[in-house]
Amino acid sequence: xxxxxxxxxxxxxxxxxxxxxxxxxxxxxxxxxxxxxxxxxxxxxxxxxxxxxxxxxxxxxxxxxxxxxxxxxxxxxxxxxxxxxxxxxxxxxxxxxxxxxxxxxxxxxxxxxxxxxxxxxxxxxxxxxxxxxxxxxxxxxxxxxxxxxxxxxxxxxxxxxxxxxxxxxxxxxxxxxxxxxxxxxxxxxxxxxxxxxx
Length: 198
Fold this sequence. Notes:
Blueprint: H1 2-42, H2 75-81, H3 84-90, E1 110-114, E2 120-123, E3 127-128, E4 136-137, E5 146-151, E6 158-163, E7 169-174, E8 184-187, E9 192-196
Antiparallel strand pairs: 1-2, 1-9, 3-4, 4-8, 5-6, 6-7, 7-8
């Protein structure tokens, strides 16, 4: 009789331990799922969350549409002209730290020019808040002023964006932007300078 009671107690204790372990496992799983959902919602998403303050179209001038004549300089010449951060990004293909560019908060009406050669690249009406930490645009201001090439660095194939006049590295373009046209030109702020327009 005592043996049966002991066995029953042991079985009940075992069941209680199993239930407690299951409860702990479910709690951990719920926390992990919550973290995954949070990071999916907040990291790397290119869905526009807020438009630029002045979304009126910027009309290109005759000078903006002029044919592009290539500029070629040595690394020494570029290094003398650019800041260390600009040189690292534009000539050595570095990437600035996410969230570090003052241009993220630039919402005035105007044009974002190449910081190296002053070519007009992106307009304020194409800028959107991607949530990625880099200035983002849906399209170039003048298509001929922006060039692309295949980038196979970091064990991945991406589309690099560079200035059509001086060849400066600007960033990359991805197909996860707001429609239309569904593109996200993810630019390094160090490669751009903003020029207001009326």
